[in-house]
Write a structure and sequence with these properties.
Helix content: 25-40%
Number of strands: 5
Low-confidence stretches: none
Structural class: alpha+beta
Largest sheet: 5 strands, antiparallel
Shape: globular
Order of helices and strands: HEEEHEE
Strand content: 25-35%
Oligomer: single chain
Distance between the termini: 30 Å
Length: about 120
């Protein structure tokens, strides 16, 4: 496992997600992408903040970008070498980004609007 490989994947993930956020809404200010991998279960979702409103990003409307995000995330997961992980990517419209990893709590940082949730990952 080479740190340079992981760093390149994180940069590629951030770049791809920033491009998607710009496509989703040109007035976006912050966006979140969450990828989870637990055994045979994979999942991802995202949200974008624009003018103080949080909207979930549809993978169906942006399927090619979504496929690429999942592919990069899966490669990053393989580089990490853990049996399960959650990856949370946070980007803003000034091209800043942060990536967080969780290896125990597969429900951490969920992105949803169900049951009154805001669409921002829990804990942010």
């Amino acid at each position: 496992m080479v740190d340079d490989d992981r760093s390149q994947l994180v940069i590629e993930l951030a770049k791809t997600f920033i491009e998607l956020a710009m496509e989703v809404d040109s007035s976006w200010t912050k966006a979140y992408f969450r990828f989870s991998h637990e055994g045979n279960r994979l999942g991802s979702n995202a949200s974008c903040v624009s003018n103080g409103v949080v909207n979930l990003v549809s993978p169906f409307q942006h399927d090619s970008a979504w496929d690429r995000l999942n592919e990069i995330s899966e490669n990053l997961f393989q580089e990490i070498g853990k049996p399960k992980a959650v990856i949370l990517l946070i980007v803003d419209n000034e091209f800043n980004f942060d990536v967080k990893f969780e290896y125990d709590d597969m429900r951490k940082w969920t992105i949803t609007k169900i049951d009154g949730a805001t669409g921002v990952p829990e804990g942010f």
